[in-house]
Design goal:
The protein has 256 residues and is an alpha/beta fold. The chain has helices at 30-41, 71-83, 94-99, 101-109, 129-147, 163-171, 190-207, 229-245, and strands at residues 3-6, 12-15, 60-68, 89-92, 113-116, 153-154, 175-176, 181-182, 212-217, 248-249. The radius of gyration is 18 Å and the shape is globular. Bound molecules: zinc ion. Zinc ion is lined by residues 9, 66-67, 117, 121, 157, 221.
């Protein structure tokens, strides 16, 4: 018996009662181990704490971009969004924001929302409470140094969390944000496959009567300079479609 999750920027994570993620002691039942893994890793789980995913209007979509800012890719994305008069949410990595404060300012000046994606992009579910707090605090500081305004939204790397993550977020005044649609664009799969993943997610979100919170990446946890050309092209294609079908783009604070 095993369970798996699709983890952003990772591979499928298989959880079995014997390997059980170090979360679960050997004495835990398979069901308990699966429940802990679900609570820590499933984007939709609310077991360890409340997360913001989407609002109740199926005609709203939030384009969200993680792991930037990333130089030319982010700039190209800003041009694409501006061409369609769309606003998006950027969950930036603090150590990149420190290196590229002017690009963070450009994102904000274009009307987009800038959120916290930690200082160094660790798996928070396995970190100490002190490290978790420091990762969130340092990223807030980097963004606030660039923008001169407080940060309100946070997305945990890989979506991984545990109760200490929610405590740290609450102490820093941050709302924790997940997603309900994934482009799987951290893999080099090309525009068509990114769009087909998003299409499936959009159909699922609409069938559930909710808005779409679409997870994409303008950068990479592994360093500045990652090629995200396919993400930008996918965004352009989506925005053409949204204009045709009446979907409105929103930033996640519209739901918070
Ligand atoms: Zn990330």
């Amino acid at each position: 018996m095993s369970f798996f999750f699709v983890i952003p920027e990772g591979n499928l994570l298989f959880v079995t009662p014997t390997e059980s993620l170090a979360l679960a002691a050997a004495s835990l039942s398979a069901t308990a181990a699966a429940t802990l893994a679900y609570a820590a890793l499933s984007p939709g789980s609310q077991l360890f704490g409340r997360t913001l995913i989407a609002g109740s209007d199926p005609n709203e979509a939030a384009l969200t971009y993680d792991d930037g800012p990333n130089d030319a890719v982010t700039e190209s994305l800003l041009d694409t969004l501006a061409a369609h008069n769309a606003r998006a949410t950027f969950f930036v990595i603090g150590r990149y924001a420190r290196q590229r404060p002017e690009l963070v300012r450009r994102i904000r000046a274009a009307g987009h929302l800038v959120g916290n994606h930690t200082e160094t992009h660790p798996w928070l579910a396995w970190q100490s409470a002190r490290t978790i707090h420091e990762e969130l605090r340092a990223c807030n500081q980097a963004i606030e140094d660039a923008l001169g305004e407080p940060v309100r939204y946070f997305r945990p790397p890989h979506g991984a969390r545990r109760p200490a993550v929610f405590r740290a977020a609450a102490e820093l005044g941050l709302t924790t944000v997940q997603w309900n649609v994934m482009g799987m664009d951290w893999q080099p799969i090309g525009t068509d496959r990114i769009l087909s993943h998003i299409d499936r997610g959009l159909t699922r979100a609409r069938s559930r009567g909710t808005g779409a919170n679409i997870l994409l990446h303008d950068g990479s946890q592994h360093g500045l300079g990652a090629d995200r050309t396919a993400t930008v092209a996918s965004t352009a294609a989506l925005l053409v479609r949204f204009a045709a079908d009446g979907t409105r783009t929103v930033t996640v604070d519209a739901w918070g």
